[in-house]
Amino acid sequence: MTAPILACDELTLDEADPVADACAHIAAAALTPSPVGRVGLELELHLVDLADPGRRPDWTRVQELLATVPPCPHGSTVTVEPGGQVELSTPPAPDLSTAVAWLQADREVLREATGALGLGAAPLGADPARPVERSNPNPRYVAMEEHFASRGCSLPGRSMMTATAALQVNLDAGPPALWSSRLAHLRALVPMLVAASSTSPWLGGRASGWHSMRQQCWDGIDHGRSDPIPVGEPTVAWALYALNAPVMLLRQPDGTVPVTERITLGDWLRDPARLGRAADRADLDYHLTTLFPPVRPRGYLELRCLDALPDRWWPAVANLAVVLADDPVAADAAAELCAPVAGAWATAARDGLADPAMRRAVAGCTDLAARRAPAALRAQAEALAQLAADGRSPADELRRRAETDGPTRLLEEEARA
Known about the structure:
seven-stranded antiparallel β-sheet, Glutamate--cysteine ligase EgtA, Creatine Kinase, Chain A, domain 2, ATP-binding, alpha+beta, GCL_bact_plant, globular, two-stranded antiparallel ribbon, ligase activity, EC 6.3.2.2
């Protein structure tokens, strides 16, 4: 890395040096001082035509759904991903139990709207049955697809965009004095969370053998935008991560165009001719939306490593993530449980609970989270803990059903549930 970027750790705003200026801008917006306790949840679901579950609903059907979904009672927004996946995103709730109750209620609103149109919505980490295909014509997604193709990762890039779904947990950043330890703790939890939450043993009609094929997709794209943020003071680490990440998209007056060479943000700032013009603050902010580490700072903290899960599981997995992050007693115990697997990213995604050390971490953490769960979530948390104690995970059940009944039947059943 060159000296101008390394000088960023002083966070000196120097408008004459575009790299230092960009670094200071990104770092300043990374995290917002706050108490700890609020929770936001986002759940993505694959839309399914119940009359023809093996065929992805076209964009006209998706638009029809968006036009008929009434406002959610708890304020969740409804958006659509590149493959027509629908995302429900709650506002920040004062605590985990409230966030879960809000998402459950707003999920019922979506369920009624989809049912009225002969559609269902399956919250699974990957679409197990249908071919990988983009249906959303948004120019950003068209350009993303072209970028991935130009960089030699077309299939994992398109699969990630169009055939995967997540449960995202959003947490307060906390007081600045705790930022470094809080980010390091969340990073250490990620492998265990990946192994515990996987619901993607099949994708696009095939099984690769990975415990989480959703994570396999992330592993197949440019690691400069999907790897964890390096250890260090987190606002600086995030700024350096962004400066060294490749630019994916370029905003133009007539739309969004893909960047088809590997040009980092730092390269662009040092030599504006590389992309035909200088980057402005809006370009910096847009670049950050194309970076996908498993824990991403956006003022608050996004946990992006969890697969979407059916309704019988996602509240317990949300509890697992939040309790082990925000409950000081549980966090300390979880740190000890996860220490042996804290860097085992690939093992978690490929092997899951088949790895003995990962199985111990998941079993210990799910039991801990069940014992520290709020009363409203304790029964579901205990069920997840029992599953892990038996050496099983949601992915194991789904794999068995896909192998027995076929992936299309699995998708249809989860869309109707």
